[in-house]
Amino acid sequence: MKTTDFLLEPEPLQKLKFADHYRQMWPFVKPYWVRALLAILICIPVGALDSVIALSLKPYMDNVLVDKNTTSPVYIPILIVAFTTVQGFLNYAATYLNTWVGTRINHDLKRTLFKKLMSFEPSFFDCNSSGVIIQRFASDADAACMGLLDNLKLFVSRFFSSLSLIGVLIYNSWQLSIIAIVVLLCALLPLTQVKRRIKGLIKDTINRSSCILTHYNECHAGNKTIASYNLQEKMYGQFNDILRVLFKLTMKMVKKTGWMTPLMHVVVSVGVGAVIGYGSYLIVNGTITSGNFVSFITALIMLYTPIKGIGKNFNNVQVSFLAIERITDVLNLQSHIRDKDNAQELKVVEKGIKFDHIDFEYQKNIPVLRDICLNVKAGSTVALVGNSGGGKTTIVNLLPRFYDVKKGGVFIDGIDIRNYSLHSLRDKIAIVFQDNFLFSGTIRDNILLGKPDARDEEIQKALEMAYLKDFVQEHEKGLDRDIGERGSALSGGQRQRLAIARALVKDAPIVILDEATSALDNRSEAVVQKALDNLMQNRTVFVIAHRLSTIQNADLIVVLNNGEIVETGTHHELMARENGAYKKLYEAQFKSK
pTM of the predicted model, to two decimals? Predict the structure, then answer.
């Protein structure tokens, strides 16, 4: 499955069998299988020891309550306390091991899923909301590991508890055991239909839950927009609508599964009633003793009580199974943009970059770029201008292979960039966006993203060229100043200059400036433009500019309109053309001046 097939709720390209899912999960279990097996084995005596109390009641009843003999059963209370103490220690050990194994598997799975997430191209994130990604790459791992292992411990202990208690039933009366076992099977029969009935509901519930996560993320990221446009009631209304749908789904789940618990109560009560009725007859005619009967009833109640609530646990297990299926779907995804076998390493850019008859589309049959041909000499500056939506940003996004072309090719020094390794290609490109993403941490942390092993001299030079040196020095913590989430402690100009410093430290031969000054005021723009001029020196530069005053000295200006190149030339050449597209843009922008 490719990432473009993965939307809110993808369907696998081929239906994987139950065993296939768990074969893919085995590598995560394998390193810890000894502890996992030990945790399961410990659950066997934990469950089996449940029968001790029921079994001990027979001699107690027969000797004390019937024969009035108080000496022989003295050991019984001590035995019960001893076995219960052992059971308690074993239960603690099983819980500890289960948690240890479950957490280890969970973290390994999350590491693998996160690594898989980092391998996807931008189109994957275009198609999937933050809520879906959190749900599929984090929450599903929790549900699959912790939920399944916790319920596995429960089922193993209850299974062997049931076996030991059934042994007590048979020991006390095989006749009554037949009634009890038949009723038990009738009570468990409805569970066979549960998975089929709730699978679709669980998927819908998970998807709606991911919408809630997305809503929280949007409220956090867009808090200023919400406040400025008074969108509080609108956002609340959307959130409330999601909760209404979730409520309906929850009630549908109750309708489909809620009947199991009361039905099991009824079936179990029938079994208890039948045992009491027939057991009274067996006592009267001397087939069993009172001790047999009390021991039998105690074992029966201990057997039936957990069965009454097993429906809820079974639902949780189904959620875990479904989470495993969803995880294997994610692990089967293949990024469309990845290295070819024996990919070359891009070391230097000597000759230039060529866009050769490029066609591109984000959505099928909706072209964004048409027959783009462009030759860029190494060390030159190319400016891309034109109306919004003309394809300027799309062109530069093809260079680091954020997206791949539909037709044609992009070449660096005569070699198709798809033949270079992604790491080496992107290592030779520095990008300054209009809205640069800064990570939580310090100024130093964000600058070193460009080059993790940069020396202090390189950092200081980058700060100076980005006109950030005075700003850094005026704070007592200097480079170790915390900038807040997404650089919230900095102004717009400071964020841009920090992004430029990051690019300067990277020292890449190719630089992309995607409207790097369009969101700034005139004063901030002037400072940032000086920093950009430093960044552009001796590099191959692609500039997307809204303000045409900033690109008049470009070696080549490319005018795009509706995904096509309509003009190319220098500023003076394009201004000399009567009724030229660039001249119209320039005059429209500077008309007031």
Answer: 0.76
